[in-house]
């Protein structure tokens, strides 16, 4: 797999994505409250293996009026299939964010998938494996405070770490694409019309999966408030790219637009929305900012490319 970032750039981006988990996305309370794991009857195991060395069990909490999970050690894929009368044959894998420590399952996962299904798109929420955090909520909150204060140890990545740091998550994404293609007939999906959209850390995973020369080969990709630094050479057949971010995003809005420029330089399709306000993590939250319109813009972009028209 080609190196996705240089060592310094990769470490900075991971750190910023981690910090993003505590950025208030709306007026809801930022207090973390443990909750029971919600029923997930449709979640399909991806069989990519249990994360090596994992000791803490998967747990769930609420924050900002949303639902989060952490300590995910076994990846799953949850289908949200459209009404057959609306189905158009396009599919999208949805990768929530959370700094590779948590996953914002409702705001950046299930709610996005439901909105896509309402447009006739078969959506699949990817619950990918995560870096371990303390099992107890108090320990988790303490570790996050240490991270934000800068007191947590952050060792310098070893040579080659940039290329391998996301290997488990990329394997989960590749397995998701393979599963959808293997059941394309059952789910009424065109195997050549499977895209991927990610948020924050999920956007990093989307880009890394696309640029890793692996088997995923998405038909199109969406990067919502992910890093905008160039991620290396853009393949001549790179998929169309949709990018949305707020200008007041405290993590990724001030590092230039290398990702956009690299797609343009490669003469590949790219659409870029820079919203004046919205902060980080706006997702599907309804806010009094134009960033709330990102999903409609994404749907119009998909329609422009023909992905909302019925396949065949």
Automatic annotation (TrEMBL):
Residues 1-27 form the signal peptide. Keywords: Hydrolase, Signal. Residues 110-309 form the Dienelactone hydrolase domain. The keyword Signal applies. It comes from the Bacteria. This is Esterase. It comes from Sphingomonas hankookensis. The lineage of its organism: Bacteria, Pseudomonadati, Pseudomonadota, Alphaproteobacteria, Sphingomonadales.
